[in-house]
Amino acid sequence: SDHMENISGYLMKYTNLVTGWQYRFFVLNNDAGLLEYFVNEQSRHLKPRGTLQLAGAVISPSDEDSHTFTVNGASGEQYKLRATDAKERQHWVSRLQICTQHHTEAIGKNNPPLKSRSFSLASQGSANSPGVQRRPSQNAVSFFNVGHHRLPTGKRVPIMQPDHLVDVREMMSQAEGQQRDLIRSIECLPVSGHLTSLDQDLLMLKATSMATMNCLNDCFHILQLQHASQQKGSLPAGTTISWLEPKISLANHFKNGAAQNFPAEINKPATVREEQSIAEPCQLTREPEEINSDEELEDICDDKEDDLGAVEEQRSVILHLLSQLKLGMDLTRVVLPTFILEKRSLLEMYADFMSHPDLFIGITNGSTPEERMIRFVEYYLTSFHEGRKGAIAKKPYNPIIGETFHCSWRMPKSNVATDVGSNLPAHSTSEQVTLSKDPEGQKDLDYYTVKFVAEQVSHHPPVSGFYAECVERKMCVNAHVWTKSKFLGMSIGVTMVGEGLLSLLEHGEEYTFSLPCAYARSILTVPWVELGGKVNINCVKTGYSASINFHTKPFYGGKLHRVTGEVKQNVTNTVVCRVQGEWNSMLEFTYSNGETKYVDLTKLSVTRKRVRPLEKQGPFESRRLWQHVTESLRDGDIDKATEHKRALEERQRSEERLRAETETPWCTKYFLKEGDGWVYHKPLWKTVSAAQTQQTDTN
């Protein structure tokens, strides 16, 4: 109570991108549980410019500097504030937190739980119906009668027998149906009036009921696994486990891609049932498939992503999502709303990082180790603009385990950079003729081919492997990436855990590299994306390394998407090149000899990838797998896209449960586990080494 004092003073308040930060006079009213602000101290006797209820609010000091903090009201309103120094920020944060806790606890004491009653929504009849009109003191929790059942004291819970699991499944199905009805009833409420679908108590009720059902499902799944382990080996082939949903015969269980048939549901679209069953005329195989690049056609798909703009129309969805999250929470298992999705899979996004194959192939043309490192840095920094589709705050589809993506690029040899100071290609004419034969050696080609393959090798954790090679230039890149996403308050951070390896076989050099973090900012207003963090590129053989910093924008001042870096010779600790600029617009390279080079990414030519038509793709290739989701998004039908997306995710969960039940390990198709990483099953460094060994034996 000693700290429950009314405090006031000037703070900077962030308004919007145009107005920016402005000084405002703030007053903390502890008695009323309000944070009010005025234009200045002289106007505090007037009506406040803004008022925020602190009951249920979250006070969050910023981790980007020592002056800024946010006040997130339970209504969804947010104040982004900045004190003059760290001491003043701590003073405001501590007083606000004490006031918030006091008034939040007071609400809980004034609204005790009701007696045990069933889930039901009061009659909504006309506007004069008692079910619609509620007293100002009546909160949403008392409007929805939620049951609470307590076991009599001293009574032991009977041990669940295996044959009771069917009954439990039935009861859980009923509870899930009631929970869905509850959610539907809340979402059908008007957006204005005494009781709305955005009521803070209703949003919390939606979140807690969903969390409860998820917890019960997890517990039930543990019981299933325990019973399955007890019965392992005693069930004859063909026995059906009746408590699994959907019901699947053990004789027809998934063996990493075996044909599968789920029971059709009459009330779902035919395309959704097709996604659940993936009934193919032939058996699927996990054996690596050699893709004929001649079957691939230049990609004519040009899915421009529209800006999300203000998300007011989706505010209830966003608020409902935020009500389930905590600061620092891992978002790997959180299902995000469909309207924020790009029209491509994450695996295809990795392919789009290769949209400048001329710069990629040109790396090996560098005449010295120094030049090759600088060329790699240039290619690396220019890859994010096309890979990220600029700064649009949308996310690609989360790949299904076993999903793959194939494509290639054809680059005219005349477009690839040669040695500095020379008009000749990096190789002699005779050598290029040898390297540039088509696969059957029938004719010389005037272009290089870069092939790409990606595969989702793990679901939990979500790990993707991708590999690209140019056989003619004897170079390849192999990488694996684990995407870890966390909730950071008003933004979402994605850490790209993993490592890439570029191999230049003609020079015997290997370059290791990492990837920056990505952040989705301002998720309640106008979402946008930025990259952040430090990455390193290193070549042990040559002793050259590069350090690159992706700078996040500070709250006050500063540029967006800024990047700086330097290339140095580790032995002499000499910086041979510095780079600065923005990763999505202009880059400036300054060399040790004083020369400067500018790269305008907005004018950099993009080579279209070549992809097989849908009818020639396998059922687990990205575009065919997600085609119905993509088509629905193109048509602007978010509900239909959500249904198709949910069907794919449910099928993946069912397969995962079944593999756990039968202890069937997942087998990857193109990538093999080596240590902590994943390596392509037939990398170029192995095939070239084998060919050289064979040639030596022949000689």
Automatic annotation (TrEMBL):
Region of interest (Disordered), ranges: 104-136, 637-658
Chief location bin: membrane
Locations listed in the record: Endomembrane system; Endosome; Golgi apparatus
Gene3D superfamilies from the UniProt entry: 1.10.287.2720, 2.40.160.120, 6.10.140.1150, Pleckstrin-homology domain (PH domain)/Phosphotyrosine-binding domain (PTB)
PH domain span: 4-101
GO biological-process terms attached to the record: lipid transport
The protein's name: Oxysterol-binding protein
Species per Swiss-Prot/TrEMBL record: Indicator maculatus (spotted honeyguide)
Gene name linked to the record: Osbpl11
